[in-house]
Model the fold of this input.
Amino acid sequence: MPDDNLIIRFWGVRGSYPVPGPRTVRIGGNTACVEIQAGQHTLILDAGTGIINLGAELMRRSRAMGSPVTATILFSHMHNDHTQGFPFFDPAYVGASTLHILGPKVFESDLEETLSHAMLPPSFPVALEDLPSLKILRNVNETDIVLIGPRPADVQVLNIYHNEIDPSPDLVRVRTYHSYAHPKSGVNVYSISWRGKTVVYATDTEGYVQSDQRLVKFAKDADVLIHDAQYRIEDYTNPSKPKQGWGHSTPEMAMAVAQASNAKQLVLFHHEPTYADDTITAIEENARKTFPNTSAAYEGLEIVI
Done:
């Protein structure tokens, strides 16, 4: 019987830019990257600098198991803090690796063109097309459902209105909600489901009055909701430098979505880079007074559902 556990691992939890140093030792200083392991399937959410350490770990697992790396990478959007680690992702430099790379269309540019800009000479010495791994790139939107399995390399992108969708619970299912609450072209929020368990990844989104009701519906009954919580309320509303409209949430906004969607667990994510470890710990403790099953994401956090 295959292992039924769905495992979430956090490799990068900061927003905006990486912050190494003594103030970020416990929480971590790498930018956004989350791994989801569903049986034999590996999904990677965003490619901030956290993906560099994940890439080294995937290569270690590959050598131990004697099989090449196969992974599905889901970009929420193409801002620098979510792409800056990809040029240093070790499996991309191995010819035996297979990488399915999915993400939103940015204005008139497709995903391949946008990702290529992160590795565009002379800014970087290796171009995307020069990487020897097998890379399959595709845009995804709200009318698509991604099905992964039964083998890790089996990835289908189907239109929910025009295709029959295989109901097997053994397939990993990825649904998309595109939020426009982040400049300039919005952000993809992802729901990943497998064998009756669901994780929702909602980074780089900003709360609305009475919450984003489309997001609430999209995250309904999620086992784990990973939600942007970059700014303390006092910083978000600071009259000298307000953060409203910057495309990021407060912990209160994240908790409101978790409560309204009946999520079982909330993980605060995309931490403000100027916040030291103690500040984020205090944010977590305060949030638990309202939503007890809340955790502040940190590098090395592993959640098993």
